[in-house]
User: Which sequence fits this backbone?
DNA sequence: TTGAAAGCGCTAACAT
DNA sequence: ATGTTAGCGCTTTCAA
């Protein structure tokens, strides 16, 4: 491996000068700088980031820890992060926790051990994991999912509002028994969207019964099973609000398998879009989220925190909007 | 930051002993080891991976560099990589090159600079990038896309065969003028799938004309535009074989927008599945690939290469299969 | 079995 | 403006 010492010898300067050139310090004589550049090229020198990291105790890498890499919601978010990161001189590495606190914990440990410059995390819900980051003074931004009892920069959407909108839309459309399939209780989005659902029921005098609520896992199969369980209940619903995109797909699959007609007999609204939603029949009504901006905003907060670690943490809440399509409109 | 020196002092041993305990060396007295463990706990010691990396000149991180993080094909592949990596004691970080050789190059540089343990790459097509990896003796596996002139471990699918199958199926179904929308020429999968298409045309005596071929970008919009251009040609096709999932979606969107009836008037077969394909109307016939196994196989190769850098590189070719659904069957 | 000490490649005081 | 040098935290050779 070629080191700055090799370059220094070749260019007849000191290692310090090489380092200065490497870091674009202006305090170096142009002719000397040129000699160093040439030597680097001649020797095909590549800086060793690990040594640099050790010296500076920090990297130019951001870790983005998400809970499901196969969910287009997260991958779209990542694009937003990347674009900002590139601009600020950071590279983004993605870590997939797979909704598994164990894996999440491993990636957090890796981010800490590798001294990454910052972490953007959509947590699987165990607060201790984040605490490790905060205690180690790692710059961290919570995205999509809120952290209880930890005061960190956060980017969210107005989950309660969006869920309320979706549920109200179903009730207003003439569906009577609107069910809700939500995610794990420990995850803030699952809880908040459930709350929005309940709020809409209360304000419209809909039947609020625990029999109409299912807690699933934010995945397709979980949505399918929850839907099946609702249909098999004693008083089955005639509409469902599913609190994420994958579970919505699962629910619709179940309805198709059972031969239930959507939207004629049964209304469906989901949370967050899916790609090629327009090709799906019936096309799905959803609460749409600004996924890309979610990523962008988180990245901006992270960059600011790295630049100024003492800043008071702030929370950005982005708006959601109801996209009405076929699956929730009985009379076309 | 707590270091092994702090732990050593606390446990009344030498730093060397702490290091030995840390690495599970058996040559250390049990009672001493216990004392060290206790001290680590007391001080909440966390090993500094960067220092360790510098000393050993390698990490326990694998970089997986893919060309489109929003393409479910790649994310599914990553799951396969992850499962093997975990088992072998590595963590996987994902890098999204976005089909941009520039970004790809940046991530390759990062993987090199950070001295990652290995790289799995689905290249955007510039051979110099991979050469940098090979020259630096970085363990590397090419996945999905082949590298010309570089002898590295590779995992592919039988692209020519799959494409031939798809095209033949359309011709056999009575479609006459079968077009092909493929990806950038420099990418091996685009070239090979085109070759399979041409081979099928030749063997069945179909009309092989450059007017029926379009080179797009493996993205949805590219597929849309290519389809539009085909339809606007002087002798428009009555069927299309699109060489990846996203372009297939784009092509279908275009057909819908133009009011072309699929499959009655126009046949469509794609390469690689899309999620919730069963919800899409018409459901799409595709050449399916074992995405998860692709990832698994690449990971196994990488682990072997790391363990034994001198091994001769091998190429694994996995099978594809034709999934016939609605979009290519005229008479149901 | 344990400890002392060198050194991985780099940056930044500090000295010149 | 440039050079000398200490040291980031760890592993490992060598000596005891």
Assistant:
């Amino acid at each position: 491996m070629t080191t700055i010492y090799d370059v220094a010898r070749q260019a007849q300067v000191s290692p310090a000068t090489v380092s200065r050139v490497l870091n674009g310090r202006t305090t170096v004589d142009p002719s000397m700088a040129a000699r160093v550049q040439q030597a680097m090229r001649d020797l095909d020198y590549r800086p060793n980031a690990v040594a640099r990291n050790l010296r500076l105790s920090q990297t130019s890498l951001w870790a983005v820890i998400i809970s499901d890499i196969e969910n287009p919601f997260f991958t779209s978010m990542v694009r937003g992060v990347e674009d900002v990161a590139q601009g600020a001189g950071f590279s983004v590495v993605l870590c997939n926790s797979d909704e598994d606190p164990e894996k999440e914990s491993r990636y957090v440990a890796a981010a800490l051990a590798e001294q990454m410059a910052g972490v953007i995390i959509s947590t699987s819900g165990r607060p201790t994991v984040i605490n490790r980051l905060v205690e180690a003074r790692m710059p961290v931004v919570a995205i999509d999912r809120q952290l209880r009892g930890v005061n960190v920069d956060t980017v969210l959407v107005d989950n309660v509002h969006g869920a309320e909108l979706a549920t109200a839309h179903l009730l207003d459309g003439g569906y009577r028994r609107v069910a809700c399939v939500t995610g794990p209780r420990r995850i803030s989005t699952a809880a908040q969207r459930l709350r929005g659902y309940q709020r809409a029921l209360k304000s419209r005098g809909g039947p609020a019964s625990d029999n109409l609520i299912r807690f699933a896992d934010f995945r397709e199969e979980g949505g399918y099973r929850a839907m099946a369980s609702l249909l098999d209940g004693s008083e089955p619903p005639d509409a469902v609000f599913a609190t994420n995109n994958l579970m919505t797909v699962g629910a619709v699959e179940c309805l198709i398998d059972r031969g239930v007609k959507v939207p004629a007999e049964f209304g469906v609204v989901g949370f967050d879009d899916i790609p090629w939603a327009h090709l799906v029949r019936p096309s799905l009504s959803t609460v749409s989220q600004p996924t890309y901006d979610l990523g962008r905003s988180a990245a901006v907060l992270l960059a600011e925190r790295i630049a100024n670690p003492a800043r008071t943490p702030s929370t950005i809440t982005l708006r959601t909007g109801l996209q009405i399509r076929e699956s929730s409109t009985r009379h076309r």
Notes: The CA atoms of residues 140 and 219 of chain A lie 26 Å apart. Chain A touches chain B through 50 residues (CB under 8 Å). Chain A has a mean pLDDT of 94.
